[in-house]
Amino acid sequence: MKDLIAGRIHEICSHYGMTTNELAQTIEMPKTTLNNYVNGQRKVNLELVCKLVDSLDIDANWLLTGKGQIRKENSRTDGDQLISSQNSTSISNRISGNNINNVGGHYINLAIDRKIKKLLEKEKISIEFEQSVELLQQRNEYLEARIKDLEENIALLKELLQARNLLINILMKK
Description:
Number of strands: 2
Helix content: 55-70%
Strand order of the largest sheet: 1-2
Largest sheet: 2 strands, antiparallel
Strand content: under 5%
Radius of gyration: 33 Å
Order of helices and strands: HHHHHHEEH
Mean pLDDT: 75
Structural class: mainly alpha
Number of helices: 7
């Protein structure tokens, strides 16, 4: 699959008249990362596919299987110019929640994948928050124990002060 995707990335560059470095910039990916995909040093993943499909309106079926056209049939044709990711509709907005696409025999539900990713990010934040709360509770318990120790020490010091004053009074009477 690596060689096929790498070849298609070159076709995308050729189609748009750009270098792989320019493509990396267009899809907001570090040049080295994209080159690692092209050279087979990194496995092609859903993130790369989504970036290519979202940023350039590439047909996911073509990207993964080579079947069909490089651009989506329903994509805009502004003289075959790049469609900026800011102006294009993202995949998650174009794919309804339960619309599963068969791409090269593999079922990919990009909208659900993105929702899962967002939920995992929220879960990570939630876990970090819970850990922070737990640490604060532990710190609070420690501080309460220290306050109790200090209050006991203050009570002892008051007793010692009273004993000292009593001793001074007894010594002064003699």
